[in-house]
Design brief:
Length: 945
């Protein structure tokens, strides 16, 4: 069999870290002749498919960029004053260049290893601080996927808070329409009754009501007096959820002051481009009493072993990995990078400038309102930035505005909304007035909103919002922060199940092209043709890679893809009259999002056992099916399994479930082991979500963004999430924006377009080769827990570190010691507690794989010394890891090993650029006991002094 080689300029040569001689020598180590020989051995014959993927021939980096530029050029960039949750904003260039376009930030992973994540954790902590301050709540999380899904999470939190004893929630019809729609999606499966009401008139009844949801200011730009509503709700035992706007809150009374219990919204207009709808960081803030039931990630302050303050993720026991179907939500990936951008925008401007920006926007809006009234157009009483015109010829106004390069929001035949933002000038208001028929050429500026709406408290008094207002200081702050972290720009991050592969510069480049970044999600169809085409092409490419018939790009994380897929299954069964099918079979090894998503779809989770080889136990599966065959809705399996193995019997599993009338959901997070070698849509799957932020090169962003497309076979296609551009799809709306995180889709488009069918297949083969090579190199010291055919693993392997515990060395010790060697630890304790799961990906070089193996050998030697009794475990290199510079350099260092052994353990590595962890090992328990999730304001600080 021949070697797969590519012409010089083929991108596969850049993306794949192994050269041909590396590949050959690694194959030699394993005893295989060729990549095909290895693949044919490891992939079960029942699913192997080596037909070339139906993709266009690969383009070089330059050619692909040129082709995408032509698509981008078909988008028309107008000034969008459409509002409805998405606003024009200026991304400070210092943030664009040093964060959004900087791999030190965008290639980082979710901060599960806090010692190497202090930079991003610090900013997320300030995100929580900013949200807490502006909303007037006690505690905020570190972002959610978008405003609409945050509303959905708030709905279920309120429902749970009253222990599900009440079933009705009032929802203002003046909420953003997409929020109403996602709320309906979330409420329906759970049997929650949503009752629309208008907050200007009293609610008809509060019977059985657990919550009330209002938008402040509302979608038309109006604020009604909400304090009374909050009081009435509380008197009736209901909670108040307020959707709000951070810029408005720099000016208006905080929701906390009005009486809200939960506040949600979007931080997009703090410097994050529109991007056709995303990614943007949703926010979620609550009163103290709900902190333990809050969804998503929460950053808390704790201390390290030296007693210094340190950040880490708090209250993780709320999350899906531990609570599974009882988790507070299925959120895993959120929007860390975008939350970071929004926070830094606030740091760069500080509260004074934010407030004056808000004042100027408000004055412009009030001026527009007054002028409209002056020549007879009826408007709302604006309170912040949005003027709604009533009784007008809406279509005429909107099309006249488009001719002037401005998009307005047509709400109905006779209603138009205009949302002003920080990019608007007086000249824009003059243009608007001219479009409306006035001949005014200059303006008398109106004043800001009346005092009764305005907040009088101070906020964001913390240092961080006052120190970095010059570009030099901001630039250096960003550098200091990113230097604290390990991202892919420093070292391999071999996180099993997460596929931390190259996020190439060519793939990232289009994200900040204005033709992609400055498009409003509700811009008219004829202005977004470039996006439409790019998206349609990407859907087709992903179908070609997976064997599915249709693909929706709407879900903005894997967890949301799971939810969309399960809702499609549910709708399919209902359409067939099979309402009773509500059991979702899930193997015990499944990722925590699986049972959590099933619960959100109101399916009953039935756990299927795994056998001692880690495979789905076919006998137990059949028993679970036979117990209730008519009730089986679906099975959710991951393939290759979360154990990193190609299970031989996967087709039998699929057949058994199909036989019973159930659908097969294949979690596609591990698709990096399948692209070009087997197709889930062909070997038994009815539906899968993919993780574009794993297999298809979207960077992890330190915990998001992500995209979790859901692919289906044709019978489920009508039940995909609805989208105005594709009317055949009638499923429930999953995200606020029609294409979720649209502006990062060019990354995956570029990847597939540049790799082509042969490149993708080779990438998969190299991912499998590297994993098996590492397993081979490590297994003498660390047993490989699960293998498949010929003792091979798929694209990742679990090494068993539990035996070391007998001599006092924990998996934590190993993970932290790897930091001294300059590495991020592999996935810890998933799916098997006490073990490490290693996934090298195809992008790493042989040299980097070997460096990691040397580190693991070094750690094994350190363990052996402990085991042999040569050194006590306490005060060993392992238990003291990671070693900070302060610790190692202290004059009276009292450890039974050398300074060099502490911080320079691998003599073959170049430590002239050593990574120094900024903190020692962090105490999680202390942090959860003494929960601090935002920094105190000056006044609180003074009070405590
Ligand atoms: C990553 C992952 C998910 C969840 O994806 P998110 O984008 O983080 O929501 C689901 N299943 C498996 C097996 C995964 O590895």
């Amino acid at each position: 069999m021949s070697k797969v080689t590519f012409p010089q300029d083929h991108f596969a040569n850049r993306h794949i870290g192994l050269n041909d001689s590396d590949i050959q020598s690694m194959l030699d180590v394993l005893g295989y002749e060729s990549l095909d020989h290895l693949t044919d051995t490891v992939i079960p014959a029942s699913i192997a498919d080596d037909a070339a993927l139906n993709l266009k021939p690969a383009l070089s980096e330059e050619q692909a960029l040129a082709e995408l530029k032509q698509l981008a050029a078909q988008n028309k960039v107008l000034k969008s004053l459409i509002g409805q949750g998405y606003y024009g904003t200026h991304t400070p260039k210092v943030i664009q260049r040093n964060v959004l376009e900087n791999p030190a930030w965008y290639t980082a992973y979710t901060p599960y290893q806090p010692e190497i994540s202090q930079g991003r954790l610090e900013v997320l902590f300030y995100f929580q601080t900013m949200v807490t301050e502006l909303t007037g709540m006690d505690i905020a999380n570190a972002s959610l996927l978008d405003e609409s899904t945050a509303a959905g999470e708030a709905l279920t939190l309120a429902h749970r808070a009253l222990r599900g004893k009440r079933n009705r929630c009032l929802v203002s019809k003046n909420c953003h329409p997409q929020t109403l729609e996602v709320l309906r999606t979330r409420a329906t499966p759970l049997g929650i009754e949503l009752v629309e009401f208008d907050e200007t008139s009293p609610a008809e009844s509060w019977d059985d009501t657990f919550g009330v949801i209002v938008q402040y200011p509302d979608t038309y730009g109006t604020v009604t007096e909400l304090t009374d509503l909050c009081n009435t709700a509380h008197e009736n035992g209901a909670l108040v959820i307020m959707a709000s706007d951070l810029l408005a809150l720099t000016l208006l009374k905080s929701p906390g002051e009005l009486g809200a219990d939960i506040v949600i919204g979007n931080s997009q207009r703090f410097g994050v481009p529109l991007g056709f709808g995303g990614p943007h960081a949703g926010f979620f803030a609550v009163r103290d009493q709900f902190k333990r039931s809050m969804p998503g990630r929460l950053v808390g302050q704790s201390i390290d072993v030296h007693g210094n303050p340190a950040y880490r993720l708090a209250l993780q026991t709320r999350e899906q990995h531990i609570r599974r179907e009882k988790a507070t939500s299925n959120i895993c990936t959120a929007q860390a990078l975008l939350a970071i951008m929004a926070t830094l925008y606030a740091c760069y401007h500080g509260p004074t400038r934010l407030r004056s920006t808000a004042q100027r926007v408000n004055q412009l809006a009030n001026t527009l309102r007054d002028e409209c009234k002056a020549f007879g157009i009826q408007t709302n009483e604006v309170v912040f930035d949005t003027v709604t015109l009533y009784d007008v010829k809406a279509a005429d106004i909107v099309s006249a505005a488009v001719k002037q390069g401005i998009n307005l929001n047509q709400r109905s035949d006779n209603t138009v909304s205009i949302s002003l933002d920080e990019t608007c000038e007086e000249a824009d208001v003059v243009s608007l007035l001219n479009i409306l028929g006035s001949s005014k050429q200059s303006l008398d500026m109106a004043s800001t909103a009346e005092d009764r709406w305005l907040r009088s408290d101070t906020y964001m008094t913390q240092d961080v919002f006052h120190k970095y207002h010059s570009e030099t200081e901001m630039m250096r702050y960003l550098r200091r922060l990113s230097d604290k972290d390990i991202a892919l720009d420093r070292a391999m991050i071999a996180l099993g199940s997460c596929t931390m592969k190259l996020n190439a510069a060519s793939e990232m480049t289009p994200v900040t092209w204005p033709e992609f970044s400055n498009i409003h999600p509700f811009a008219p169809h004829d202005q977004t043709l470039g996006y439409q085409k790019m998206i349609a092409q990407l859907e087709e490419m992903l179908c070609a890679c997976t064997g599915y018939d249709a693909m929706s790009l709407q879900p903005n994380a894997g967890s949301q893809g799971e939810y969309a897929g399960l809702l499609a299954i549910k709708a399919f069964h209902e359409a067939n009259g099979d309402q009773q099918r509500n059991i979702c079979l899930i193997p015990s090894s499944a990722h925590g999002t699986n049972p959590a998503s099933a619960q959100m779809a109101n399916m009953q989770v039935v756990v299927v056992k795994c056998d001692e080889r880690g495979n789905v136990d076919l006998i137990d599966l059949q028993a679970k099916i036979d117990a209730n065959p008519a009730q089986i809705a679906a099975i959710m399996i991951t393939y290759p399994s979360t154990h990193g193995v190609f299970e031989e019997d996967v087709t039998k599993v699929c057949e058994a479930v199909h036989q019973a009338g159930g659908q097969v959901y294949i979690d596609g997070a591990n698709l990096n082991a399948l692209v070009g070698v087997a197709q889930p849509g062909k070997f038994g799957g009815d539906v899968s979500h993919l993780n574009l932020h794993k297999t298809f090169c979207i960077p992890h962003g330190g915990g998001g963004p992500g995209v979790g497309p859901v692919g289906v076979r044709s019978h489920l296609a009508p039940f995909l999430p609805k989208d105005e551009h594709n009317t055949e799809r009638t499923g429930a709306l999953i995200s606020g924006a029609p294409f979720g995180s649209a502006s990062i889709l060019p990354i995956s488009w570029m990847y597939i377009r540049m790799m082509g069918a042969r490149g993708l297949r080779k990438a998969t083969q190299c991912a499998i080769l590297s994993a098996n090579y590492m397993a081979h190199e490590l297994k003498a010291n660390y047993p490989i827990l699960f293998t498949g055919n010929a003792e091979l693993v798929a694209h990742e392997c679990i090494i068993d570190t539990r035996p070391m515990k007998d001599h006092g060395v924990s998996v934590d010790d190993i993970a932290k010691r790897l930091i001294d060697y300059g590495f991020h630890a592999p996935t810890m304790s998933f799916p098997v507690p006490g073990t490490l799961m290693i996934e090298p990906t195809e992008s790493e070089s042989r040299a980097e794989l070997d460096r990691f193996c040397r580190a693991m050998q070094g750690i094994f030697n350190e363990y052996t010394a402990v085991k042999n009794g040569d050194v006590p475990i306490d005060n060993s290199v392992l238990s003291n890891a990671p070693h900070t510079m302060d610790f190692v350099l202290q004059d009276n260092l009292d450890v039974p090993y050398s300074r060099l052994a502490a911080c320079h353990p691998d003599p073959e590595s170049d430590y002239s650029v050593k990574y120094w962890p900024p903190v020692g090992r962090i105490d999680n328990v202390y942090g959860d006991k003494n929960l601090i999730c935002s920094c105190p304001s000056m006044s609180e600080y003074e009070a405590s002094e």
